[in-house]
């Protein structure tokens, strides 16, 4: 099997790579629903040393910058209540936390969630958090530019490995809301 984007040595359909995923991601792949078949979710093995975007594209190819997305966990606060949300934006953009995210969550204040909160609540590793398999009550805000991609490279729940999925699959995740301008050009 070949990956639809990038050049990777080890490529598997995600349902065949469940043992390489964290439990919440593996459960989500196992119970996959939507118009995109689970077999179209692809796992590629990558070195955890290069999981961060800048080093990843330096090692695996600069063309991946245009087809990769980051999943950022944000905490929105209003009236003493905190809402955790996942925000998915193209890697070449910056998340508009104080504008688009704050408005979408109806929060008075929004900020990046602390690493311990993001990893502890998601059940995923820092540097590998993915929108697939997040808690059902989390809003998943997905930039429209990500949804428009034929294939997008995202985290797999661990620092080792990535998932390549059709962009539209992310719009069908539980709690997903497509937001124009969620990511802004830097």
TrEMBL record:
Domain YbaK/aminoacyl-tRNA synthetase-associated: 56-170
Record-linked Pfam families: tRNA_edit
InterPro entries: YbaK/aa-tRNA-synt-asso_dom_sf, YbaK/aa-tRNA-synth-assoc-dom
Family annotation (Gene3D superfamilies): YbaK/aminoacyl-tRNA synthetase-associated domain (3.90.960.10)
Protein name, per record: YbaK/EbsC family protein
Organism (species): Streptomyces endophyticus
